[in-house]
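Reminder to self: tokens first, then the designed residues, so the page reads top to bottom the way the pipeline ran.
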């Protein structure tokens, strides 16, 4: 039912600090709609399209990001349009700040042939940089087989060895055998093939391609995306994107037991590196459900 949740701030704030009151924006089914709540509310409040909110029907919102400078949530749709959502008043108000666009026309050529396929369309994230710019992040994934073909070759060789005498008996197949897992197609896994970054030009209503994060690191996945300066966090690698698997279909439905798409994407090298110490054998918690990034809040006082 729930895709992701984005907080305006930590749920624990100083008493009487109305400006820092926590708001949680929820992206949920059906059709990736929006609801919000504050700590203590008895229920979620649905952000209805139309009715003065400024949102469109058939929402299909992919991600949201909160901007602490203006107190607004920014949400992006599948058509790349962006709405600024104000939840500070008695009722939600939204306005379109970035228009929808034909994003496929500006894609790298290696993705154009798959643009109409399931894996050809990028998953979109919105990320605010520490200096306040809003980035569009496109993550491209492809489906690859996790089936080890060498096992078939080994089985064929074993069969050849068994048939050397020419007198081997053929086992009769039963209806039960025909329904076993061997008839299923090989398992498939989603693998990140590319991550593209774009700076949002609200005035010109265009996206400007970026080829580097410079001395910043980014986190995306089942969490609010985050961009951090590596000078303040020396344990992070600059110009890299830390990713976790957030494919709803593969994680929860068809491929629950497969290895997750987790690692560190090097923007300079254009390849995915393994996350240190993470392996399906040593760390089974990486399998299902997929892990998320957690941003700890270090509070002073009680």
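Designed residues (302 positions):
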């Amino acid at each position: 039912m729930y895709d992701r949740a984005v907080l305006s701030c930590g749920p624990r704030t100083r008493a009487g600090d109305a400006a820092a009151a926590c708001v949680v924006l929820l992206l949920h089914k059906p059709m990736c709609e929006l609801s919000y709540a504050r700590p203590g509310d008895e229920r979620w409040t649905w952000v209805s399209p139309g009715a003065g909110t400024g949102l469109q029907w058939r929402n299909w919102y992919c991600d949201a990001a909160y901007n602490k400078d203006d107190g607004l949530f920014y949400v992006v749709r599948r058509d790349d349009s962006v709405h600024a959502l104000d939840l500070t008043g008695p009722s939600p108000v939204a306005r379109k700040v970035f228009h929808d666009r034909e994003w496929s026309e500006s894609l790298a050529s290696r993705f154009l042939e798959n643009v109409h396929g399931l894996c050809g369309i990028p998953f979109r994230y919105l990320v605010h940089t520490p200096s306040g710019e809003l980035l569009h992040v496109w993550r491209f994934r492809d489906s690859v087989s996790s089936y080890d073909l060498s096992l078939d070759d080994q089985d064929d060789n074993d069969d050849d060895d068994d048939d050397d005498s020419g007198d081997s008996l053929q086992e009769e197949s039963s209806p039960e055998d025909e329904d076993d897992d061997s008839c299923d197609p090989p398992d498939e896994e989603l693998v990140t093939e590319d991550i593209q970054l774009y700076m949002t030009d609200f005035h010109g209503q265009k996206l400007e391609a970026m080829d580097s994060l410079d001395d910043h690191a980014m986190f995306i996945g089942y969490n609010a995306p985050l961009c951090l300066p590596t000078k303040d966090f020396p344990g992070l690698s600059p110009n890299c994107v830390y990713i976790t698997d957030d494919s709803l279909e593969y994680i929860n439905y068809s491929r629950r037991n497969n290895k997750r798409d987790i690692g560190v994407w090097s923007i300079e090298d254009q390849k995915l590196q393994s996350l240190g110490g993470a392996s399906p054998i040593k760390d089974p918690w990486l399998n299902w459900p997929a892990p998320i990034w957690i941003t700890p809040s270090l509070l002073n006082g009680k």
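The helical segments are 109-112, 149-162, 175-178, 248-254.
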